[in-house]
Specification:
The structure is a single chain. The protein contains five helices and six strands. The chain is an alpha+beta fold and about 110 residues long. The chain has a four-stranded antiparallel sheet, with helices on one face. β1 and β2 form a beta hairpin. The chain is globular, with a radius of gyration of 13 Å.
């Protein structure tokens, strides 16, 4: 993904424009994942899906196609996410809607 986006690897925090992601599941359950060094690749995955040169999305409903793309991206981390405590992946698996929280400085890019 870094090659496709023209970013260095390892991913630098300044390349990530998402500060947090809010995952909304059925029955009002909400999980907020704040940016950490450990979830940079996950946030970059969502950044690529939620933004482009001229647009930023504030929220999106989860489609079966989007869920499958996430499964492919997270690969071997997907199946045992619950047992391994991978909160971002676990929250995504049950989410019906996602809302990224953009870094304040990324609005000027």
């Amino acid at each position: 993904m870094c090659d496709r986006l023209g970013l260095s690897n390892p991913i630098r925090e300044e390349d990530i424009h998402i500060a947090r992601i809010v995952f909304m599941a059925p029955y009002g359950k909400t999980t907020i994942i704040y940016g950490t060094d450990m979830n940079r690749a996950g946030r970059l995955f969502f950044q690529e899906k939620f933004s482009g040169p001229d647009f930023r999305v504030n929220s999106v409903d989860i489609s079966a196609e989007f869920r499958e793309k996430a499964r492919e991206h997270f690969a071997e981390l997907w199946d045992d996410a619950e047992e391994a405590g991978r909160t971002l992946i676990v929250a995504f698996k049950t989410a019906i809607r996602i809302s990224p929280g953009w870094h304040y400085w990324s609005h000027n890019l």
